[in-house]
Write a structure and sequence with these properties.
heterodimer; A: alpha/beta; Peroxisomal Thiolase, Chain A, domain 1; 9-stranded mixed beta sheet; two-stranded antiparallel ribbon; 12 helices; about 20% strand; B: mainly beta; OB fold (Dihydrolipoamide Acetyltransferase, E2P); 2 domains; 5-stranded mixed barrel; 3-stranded antiparallel beta sheet; globular
Chain lengths: ~375, ~120
């Protein structure tokens, strides 16, 4: 396997885009290529993710993107894995580059949903679950994670203040992130006064519907010996799957796909959780961040909530989690999210994260879940 | 080796919407589900039996929905539930008219209530 690097990264500001996902994808792609010191003509393959492209009546985004970049002859395809779409694209890029099938690969994720009303957007999100056996029985996307919360509460303490601690921390981080959807801190009072969406989740437990686009360039070390930025060495790139339907799983106290992805990734990287400096994890809901920390082995089951309330996962804490603000506050433009997590790692390891810089950034882990855990990506990076 | 003939997703939907029966699959390993499969997701066996599910069981997970998708616009707030069936296995559904999760605690007994409304509706025993 060839040593594989992330050599360029870019994102736009998440929130509400005036332009289409197609236009935003092309802009961040070009910015990532420029930052890598490459030209579009260096790209051998493009993986693009745009899970809800149909909301804009547009499929087949890859060749449109490559055409806009002046490289229409470069092969491309769309990778769909719900909320983990672009990290799945990153894994495909890794396989291509590490396996010697490509020297430089572009990975882009873009989504636009802000032109839809809440009910329509809620319907789109629910398509990541099992439509006839979950969504058609009344499940919404928050509702599915909320059922996990009800099961978790039966075994471990999960007071509202613990869920609030995740939201408050991630909003505080996003307040320092110029790319974040919500650049404002929230108080416990604001959290507690927000309406219930799907019990026990309030509005401030939920990630927003965001528009956004993010891109990275993946290249072989031997192809690009002296990049203009600090590259990220891909120490592990892992994908896992599990039963989609939560009711068919044996255990509702975590996501089996996350557990397995964590184990495989640490084995591939030859590292342990103690050796990871900071994380970007899939916090589509506050509880999801706690489950991720437990599933990935950073905390014993039932212990992530207390650690969060004690500040261990704060930006300057022992283990900074979601310094970007996470999906919760940076925003969750579904297909952009997986790559956006890697953009954050790139900024932190290049010293360009500004006020939200974490104390140590030699190693990092990103964790991205497809819907309720039917699929999962975990990547581990070392500073190159 | 080919998979045995089993009911389709359309059969399942027609079963509970028109006929008032919940169709499912049972595997020799003990796994039982309404979810459409050709092989058991637990053990991989293709030796699945088409069964009618009792629709009786207890709530193992629950969330009251206040912001529904379009099919349930007229039903909110309601409870989305995961039900452990009396004969084993779990299925999902919803319970109408629940605004406070305390009104439908985990462990509550429910049964399938066929009707004209969308999805698999349960009512508390």
């Amino acid at each position: 396997m060839r040593e594989t690097w992330i050599v360029g990264a870019a994102t736009n500001r998440f929130g509400r885009m005036a332009e289409s996902a197609r236009e935003a994808a092309a802009r961040v792609a070009l910015a990532a290529i420029d930052r890598a010191g490459l030209a579009p003509q260096d790209i051998d393959h493009t993986f693009v993710s745009n899970a809800f492209g149909m909301a804009e009546h547009q499929g087949h985004l890859g060749p449109l993107l490559n055409t806009a970049l002046g490289i229409p002859e470069v092969p491309s395809c769309t990778i769909e894995s719900a909320c983990s779409s672009s990290s799945a694209g990153l894994h495909e890029a890794f396989v291509h580059v590490a396996g010697g099938f490509a020297d430089a690969v572009l990975v882009v994720g873009a989504e636009k949903l802000s032109h839809l009303d809440t009910v329509t957007a809620t319907g789109y999100f629910a398509t990541g679950a099992d439509f006839p056996f979950e969504a058609r029985n009344g499940a919404t996307f928050p509702g599915l994670y909320a059922t996990l919360a009800s099961a978790y509460r039966r075994v471990f303490p999960l007071p509202d203040e613990t869920l609030a601690a995740v939201a408050i921390k991630n909003h505080a981080n996003a307040a320092l992130n110029p790319h974040a959807h919500f650049q404002k801190e929230i108080s416990l009072e604001t959290y507690l006064n927000s309406p219930i969406v799907a019990s026990p989740f309030r509005l401030y437990d939920c990630c927003p519907f965001s528009d956004g686009a993010s891109a990275v360039v993946v290249a072989a070390k031997e192809f690009l010996r002296r990049p203009p930025t600090t590259p990220l060495v891909v120490a592990a790139s892992v994908r896992t799957g599990s039963i989609v339907d939560m009711h068919d799983r044996t255990d509702l106290l975590g996501l089996p796909a996350s557990r397995r992805a964590g184990e495989l990734a640490f084995r591939a990287a030859g590292l342990t959780p103690k050796e990871i400096d900071f994380l970007e994890v899939h916090d589509c809901f506050t509880l999801a961040e706690l489950l991720a920390l437990e599933d990935l082995g950073f905390y014993p089951r039932g212990a992530a909530g207390a650690a969060t309330r004690e500040g261990e996962t704060a930006r300057k804490g022992r283990l900074p989690v979601n310094p970007s603000g996470g999906l919760k506050a940076k925003g969750h433009p579904v297909s952009a999210t997986g790559v956006a997590q890697v953009v954050e790692v790139f900024e932190q390891m290049n010293g360009t994260a500004g006020a939200r810089a974490v104390p140590r950034s030699e190693t990092a882990l990103t964790h991205n879940v497809g819907a309720t855990g039917g699929s999962c990506s975990v990547h581990i990076f070392r500073r190159g | 080796m080919t998979a045995p003939e089993g009911h389709s997703i359309a059969d399942y939907l027609k079963g509970y919407t028109d006929l008032g029966r919940l169709r499912g699959f049972a595997c020799g390993c003990g796994f039982r589900t309404a979810t459409w499969v050709l092989a058991c997701p637990r053990c991989g066996s293709r030796d699945l039996t088409d069964v009618d599910l009792s629709g009786r069981g207890t709530i193992v997970a629950c969330s009251v929905q206040h912001v529904p998708s379009d099919e349930f616009l007229n039903e909110a707030p309601y409870a989305y539930v995961v039900v452990e069936l009396a004969e084993g296995g779990r299925i999902t559904g919803w319970v109408a008219g629940v605004a406070d999760p305390a009104d439908l605690p985990l462990g509550a007994a429910v049964h399938f209530h066929p009707g004209y409304k969308p999805g698999v509706q349960f009512v508390q025993d």
